[in-house]
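pasting for the record
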Amino acid sequence: MEEDNKKIFIFAAIIIAAFLFAWAVVSFVFPKDITAPWSALKFLSRPGAEPSQLPFTSNKTSPAVSQKAWFFTLTGKQLLFSGGYAYPSLVKLTDGRYLMYLAKRNRGTFILGSINAFSWYRTTDVIFPGVEMARALNFDGGVRIYYPKTDDGIASSFSTDGVNRWSAEATHIDAGADDRLNSPTIIKLEDGAYRMFFSKVGEIYGATSRGGMNWESDIVPTVSSPAFYPFVINWTNPVTKKPGYLMLYNADLNIIAAYSPDGFEWQGLGDTGIIGAGISAINTQGGLRVYYSDLAIANGVVYTGILNTEYK
């Protein structure tokens, strides 16, 4: 009997030793905290998670946050102009005044002024005959306007005060034999370079320039068909609190939003709920004020309002 007990004791000791050896091997090969990925997932999904952790630019969105979405509301909608006007574009001058470049149907683009971006007074008569969809941007020493030419390319003009003594400049982007380029929009990037976006055969393409004059066009479209009438503006992401760029553009009858942290990689945010065309915007103390035309361009109706964004 004593001999049998010794055999049982030795067998049990061998089993325990084998178990401890196997556990040591597993602990060495695998991470100590095998729940780490799930802990990170819960961190993203819990209330109060750090905004910088949310997957905005990645195509691999966690199931825990995939139900969140962007929501847009337009508040304070007001009729600004009627009777044949369209395609507003705005700049804010160093003295705090605003200038609007507005197209009059079948005539061209003229300029209005404002101290609050809401009430406008006429500053000039038509200064660019036949030009529609002109977009303005502040440059060192003045304002530059980009617009589609009659030969379907994109050119610009420059003024030291944004109102008088405009100097026509060279064509920046030539259209191909079967292309028609229109509605150019321009932003200045953090590194001092410029990005232009424009409509081309139902798609939106981009181009890059160091000084705003010589442009290198992208090979592939930024937004595929149907996409036209782009507008881009500096925009602080309300979730990450980081500066970036907001694109508003038409897809059929709806105005769609997209976001980019660098002006090159874009993520769609969804439908803004605005039905219109030729939208533009400017940052004001009251928020992002948008301006857009009625779909029936022949009616020439222009509206304004504050575009609010939420991510929930």
